[in-house]
Specification:
Layout (H helix, E strand, L loop, with lengths): L10 E5 L20 E2 L8 E5 L5 H10 L15 E4 L10 H17 L3 E4 L3 H7 L8 H5 L6 H23 L9 H7 L4 H7 L5 H7 L4 E2 L2
Parallel strand pairs: 1-3, 2-6, 3-4, 4-5
Amino acid sequence: MSLRHAGETVSITHDVRSGTRWVRRLCVSGLLLVSVATPSAQPGRIVAVGDVHGAIGEFRALLQTLELTDADQGWIGGQDTLVQTGDLTDRGTGVRAVLDLLMRLETEAAEAGGEVIVVLGNHETMSLMANLRDTTPELLARFAGPDSTSRRAAAYEDYLALTAERADALGPLAPDALSRDEWMDTHPPGFLEYLDAFGPDGPYGRWLRSKPIVARV
């Protein structure tokens, strides 16, 4: 992989999960407004990275190899531009660490004359829409707080009340309520906190909702 070439801007795309190279990624969601990032005017390299999926260790190592960050994960890329082409979330357990790192590097790069551009992928869109089908209990556990047990218990009681209302309205057509164990299995520790974090008022939800789905670099 050539990282530098005299007199030219080099574009590098890397998938840290599989090594697959991608040219561009386009994510469309009917619930998000289409927006396009302003073309970058940076004189340094353009480095694109996609499909991190919570693989924080591999992501950190890749950024160091590309000489964008140092051993402490601080920005050393100068006027380079890092483009993250989507799919930061789901699957891996380091989603929170990946997002925190990019949010910090976004600020550090700007202060150094560089730029970090984050483009929404379908997995970020799923998280913003509260679709957690590709999360895992291990991933969600990283979001669990000290009151996770009590929150889940209260949420289950709310679920039972809603199910009873549906039974009154629909009669025999109403679905049976899940048992407590069944409901808890499908709503593991961290489930509710994850929804909060990616909600409109959550730190990741606010940040991701400010990002484009297409970037012209």
